[in-house]
Design a protein that fits this description.
Layout lengths: L3 H24 L6 H8 L24 E9 L6 E3 L6 H5 L5 E7 L5 E11 L8 H5 L5 E4 L14 E2 L1 H4 E3 H7 L1 H19 L1
Parallel strand pairs: 1-7
Antiparallel strand pairs: 1-2, 1-5, 3-4, 4-6
The structure holds iron/sulfur cluster (SF4) (2 copies).
Length: 196
């Protein structure tokens, strides 16, 4: 029938509109409590739910991905930073917009070693696809959650160098606990397989 599709579409909009107020009343006066936010943002949540940013801010889910960072492990005794990256260059090859540059470190004889001397990511070109993190064989590059990177200029602050990119494994564990645990379990299995 003519116009039936439009009517159906509008009824969906109307449903969301009404449900928004019903849910607001249901959670009144704690509409922004942790419990309310968790439910209302989930797939079971009904109506539309927004917050008054920047006064209020929604937590991002674990799978959220924004500009990658490089992981380092800390030696328990000496506290020395052990950079996981081996400068293999796989991430640079799979990066669709080619925004990663790596310079391999050299030993005193000028022979290349498995470590980056320099590592840059142009964060204005990065499209947050996560390919680098997916393909890295050493779990050394991980997608971050920090999305507040707006600035007034780009060359000074938006080309991240090795120093800016490095973050400890404890931070990785904090923002991606499930992925971190899975990967650690995978590594343990791999080690056991080698020992057998
Ligand atoms: S981050 Fe991973 S893929 Fe990229 S160079 Fe380092 S080890 Fe290789
Ligand atoms: S997230 Fe995607 S675009 Fe950004 S550096 Fe990694 S591969 Fe490149």
């Amino acid at each position: 029938m003519l116009g039936l599709g439009i009517a159906k579409g509008l009824s969906v909009t109307l449903k969301h509109f009404v449900e928004t107020y019903i849910e607001d009343l249901r959670y009144f006066p704690r509409r922004y409590s942790e419990e309310a936010m968790e439910f209302r943002q989930s797939v079971k949540g009904r109506g539309l739910f927004t917050v008054q940013y920047p006064e209020q801010e929604l937590p991002v889910p674990e799978s959220f991905r924004y500009i990658p960072f490089l992981v380092y492990d800390e030696d328990g005794e000496s506290g020395e930073k052990k950079i996981r990256c081996t400068a293999c260059g796989i991430c640079t090859k799979v990066c669709p917009p080619q925004c990663i540059w790596i310079v391999r470190a050299k030993d005193e004889k000028g022979k290349p070693v498995s470590q980056p001397a320099e590592f840059y990511i142009d964060i204005d070109i990065c499209m947050n696809c996560g390919f680098c993190a997916e393909f890295c064989p050493f779990d050394s590059i991980v997608m971050d959650h920090n999305w507040k990177m707006a600035d007034y200029e780009r060359l000074e602050s938006h080309i991240f160098d090795l120093h800016t990119l490095l973050k400890p494994a404890s931070y990785y564990q904090q923002i991606r606990p499930v992925q971190y645990a899975e990967r650690q379990a995978g590594k343990k299995k791999e080690r056991k397989g080698k020992e057998v």
